[in-house]
Amino acid sequence: MDDKSKILDELVKSSVNTENCGVTVALNLLSGKWKTAIIYLISLDVNRFGQLQKMIPECSKRMMTSRLRELERDGIIHREVFAQVPPKVIYTLTPKGEKLKPVFNELKKWGNENFMQEM
User: Fold this and answer.
1) pTM score > 0.85 for this model?
2) Alpha-carbon Rg of the chain, whole angstroms?
3) For 32-86, what is each residue's pLDDT tens digit?
4) DSSP 56-68
5) In the chain, what are the helix, strand and coil shares in percent, each to the nearest 5?
């Protein structure tokens, strides 16, 4: 039996529940059209609604608002409202969101190394 088969057998024996798997949980939180792009842009200090809209013009205002609310609800971003006219809102990464920076850097590196040359 090869190593992969042994690993698979061990997983089956231990009844791994993928719903309780950290990878599954993380991917579920980050799934949803535009979420990863929004997080990545906020990590680069593109932190105003209008700026995000300009950087992702394909994302409607309604969709952008929905995704920002979901990310705020999940503790990935923080929304700060300044009491002024017109209202000013700034989005920043929370400590949880900050922990995604190295993940995005590695994804960027992986994408560049494996796919950008093919395009």
Assistant:
1) no
2) 19
3) 899 999 999 999 999 999 999 999 999 999 999 999 999 999 999 999 999 999 8
4) -TTS-HHHHHHHH
5) 60, 10, 30
| Contact (Cβ atoms closer than 8 angstroms) between residue 67 and residue 35 | yes
DSSP 47: -
Q: What residues does 81 pair with on adjacent strands?
A: 89
Domains of the chain in start order, with CATH, are 20-118 (1.10.10.10)
Tell me 32's DSSP state: S
pLDDT of residue 1: 58
CA angle in degrees (0–180, nearest 5) for 78-82-83 = 145
Query: How many residues in total does the chain contain?
Result: 119
